[in-house]
């Protein structure tokens, strides 16, 4: 841990060639220093930052007890614009970010985004401060670099709040399950999209109307693209996979597909087959045990599936470990208070290390000493079952043509259900004598590339009016686990 009040820290910086000497000094003599207080600098005065600041100021005595007698002192809040009206006394706010970093033992970064968050965290680590962050975007893209810097200088970089806020999943993956083998992680990690899909299912709303309700309730941003298009979930999947598989997973290799194409026809077809539509983040080992898959996409899940009971804007993560077996983490994955809970948990963890004089560590997802070969499989090679919903002209020839199309693409069918539909709302020119049928086709396990071929061929079928939806069906042996969550409103 950095001895920020020591004269030596001013003579030997961690950026210099004598940095290793300084780190050794910290580790040998750190336990001899009787820390009485821990100085915190907070960057970001938004909803989460305000919750963290309020709790620090109003619960100082309780936090002192939890840290074994260490005072946790909020020395300032770094902001860009001092002219804005703020919640706390004006004396707490400063635009001198460099000066605030130099006075802090711990820097809490709640700005979000890549810049200037990356520069602030880098600077804080360089001068010896520990760092706590909730920045999933930054960590998913630059986590290896920042954790390597923290490790090289003997500082801590903690980020429990970066994935699913109050749900404790980062620390279990880093510590509790570090001796186990993670086989698969499946999760609902974005509350906004889960709220939208749940509302579409329960009320019959369109995606656009459900999104508007989410925005009115504060669950979605004015620009919801990061949630709707799966960017938020993909960043979280990157972090989870990197920890679960002890590897450096490039964010660019994570397959991403959002919910913008989900319609009421998709929802209705799912309901008819006793399933829910959910946006899932999936990280799993492939059959060869060396390759992995990391992906985000909508999928159909059975109504008995534990994740099917995750309603509204809640999150849940299902972990399957070789020794521990199935584990479920469930709760609020966003919100000011919820994120503040995870941030403060990391702060207390750092404070206890200061008080105990123990040596801090920041895990590196992968370094040269323990490099392992991990290949991220492209989505084309992933095998799963699919459900097609088609509108087609009702005739024996149509059924034969569609079945032949799947067969020619070497895709086996599990089931095909036919029903008549009202074609008055179809935006397709049809003859008055045409009768339209809805076909719900479920395939056997097949690769994504084979399904892509089927879609191309179906579009050329003369009897197919439209392809309403093509959805993956999530498997994973959940039925055998016996796990279930109570349904919530």
TrEMBL record:
GO molecular function, one term: NADP binding
Protein name per Swiss-Prot or TrEMBL: Homoserine dehydrogenase
Protein EC: 1.1.1.3
Source species: Tropheryma whipplei (strain Twist) (Whipple's bacillus)
Cofactor (UniProt): a metal cation
Pathway where this protein functions: Amino-acid biosynthesis; L-threonine biosynthesis; L-threonine from L-aspartate: step 3/5; Amino-acid biosynthesis; L-methionine biosynthesis via de novo pathway; L-homoserine from L-aspartate: step 3/3
Any single biological process term in GO: methionine biosynthetic process
Swiss-Prot/TrEMBL keywords: Amino-acid biosynthesis, Methionine biosynthesis, NADP, Oxidoreductase, Sodium, Threonine biosynthesis
Catalysis: reaction(s): L-homoserine + NAD(+) = L-aspartate 4-semialdehyde + NADH + H(+); L-homoserine + NADP(+) = L-aspartate 4-semialdehyde + NADPH + H(+)
Listed InterPro entries: Asp/hSer_DH_NAD-bd, HDH_cat, HDH_CS, NAD(P)-bd_dom_sf
Protein family (similarity comment): Belongs to the homoserine dehydrogenase family.
PANTHER family cross-referenced by the UniProt entry: HOMOSERINE DEHYDROGENASE
Protein task: Catalyzes the conversion of L-aspartate-beta-semialdehyde (L-Asa) to L-homoserine (L-Hse), the third step in the biosynthesis of threonine and methionine from aspartate.
Source organism, top-level taxon: Bacteria
Annotated ranges, domain Homoserine dehydrogenase catalytic: 168-348
Domain Aspartate/homoserine dehydrogenase NAD-binding, residue spans: 44-160
